[in-house]
What does this fold into?
Amino acid sequence: MPGIVLVGAQWGDEGKGKATDLLGRDVDYVVKFNGGNNAGHTVVIGGQTYALHLLPSGILTPGVTPVIGNGVVVDLEVLFSELRALENRGIDTSRLVLSSNAHLIPSYNRTMDKVTERFLGKRQIGTTGRGIGPTYADKMQRVGLRVQDLFDSSILRQKVEGALMQKNHLLVKVYNRRAISVDEVLDELEAYADRVRPLVADTAMLLNDALDRGATVLFEGGQATMLDVDHGTYPFVTSSNATAGGACTGSGVGPKRIDRVVAVIKAYATRVGAGPFVTELHDADGERLREAGREYGVTTGRPRRCGWYDALVARYAARINGVTDFVLTKLDVLTGRDKIPVCVAYDVGGSVHRELPASQSDIHHARPVYEYLPGWDEDISRSRSFKQLPPNAQAYVTAVEELSGARISVVGVGAARDAIIQRHSLIP
Ligand code: GDP
Ligand code: IMO
Ligand code: MG
It folds into this structure.
């Protein structure tokens, strides 16, 4: 009954989509448990590139049942346009299952996301503008709309009325925008009801039954540890639990059913949006990483901030998630460097921290302490076993593994589906 959780260890875009695709061949279900269409996963299969946002990456693997869990926030317009785009490319999407408890992103929350960001001015988070934060806020405030509400028009009307009562005050009086009418929201949402109905199920029941039968379930996290609303660099985070615990609450499966926790981590680091990033580079080295790694956002197209590998972040991710295996991606991007810095400690006003400081202010003021590992020049994109890697690339992986708190079971050496080195199986 293996349950495998896959999460991002850094600030997102570690290559989770590719790792899910790698595992997809050996799993029966792939469950998205948090976030929404703020995610952007690129998967390259046979020279074809697929960009996924709301749908679990497992949708690309024939035979896998993709599940959108209760912890996800769903923009129905995006859901159906993404499905249509995949169908047009010959992907069978017919097995998709959607939780009746997942929350909906109404268009007014996209508006709220944009106006609140604008209002924050210099303090803005740099969100993706997809309505994620306002929708999770509504959920916690208990004025959210759930998938199942689409099928009870009187309940839906009551809930929309309740939500708009507050929001219209804010929109009109604070943000100087027009009020939104209940009917326009109902029209927008109810137009999808008939198409949503066949997808909906009690996904917690479905997944628990599947595990009881001995099926393999992969829980695919969006975003990442340092963007988690509880464990990330708050307030510069997303609004969901992107860490391994979120797999349980976001899908209705108990923690004892999780056998493996796989964290995907880049051989360097990137971040999109605002917030502290201790190893960030503002020089030609950073530019070189961005170009070599093609570090531009899949969702918003923004250039990603780039920096060196931070072992404190890796160890923090190992701890918070209970990581059993790391997938180290994009090692190929480091090719052609004389020396490669790896951050082994932070200097905060003269005091040395070997673990991520508990105080956010310390993280904002930290300076990286680097160890320098020797680089390599050989093209590693065709290596398919650890021994085929040049000795210095092997040494980089081993050194990073020792610093990071869990074994590195897979190494990524290129964007293509087969560009990996498997050291240990990720399936229990
Ligand atoms: P995700 O959000 O974690 O799924 O990651 P993204 O898809 O946003 O960003 C990762 C990018 O790196 C994608 O363009 C992948 O195709 C690419 N990628 C994944 N693994 C590797 C690797 O090992 N080497 C290289 N060069 N690219 C990779
Ligand atoms: P994947 O799944 C990288 C960032 C945004 C912003 C912050 C809050 O592709 O790794 P939000 O719209 O979620 O309220 O924005 O979180 N962010 C991501 N950064 N990868 C992602 O997803 C992200 N999802 C959100 O840039 O800083
Ligand atoms: Mg991404």
Notes: The radius of gyration is 22 Å.
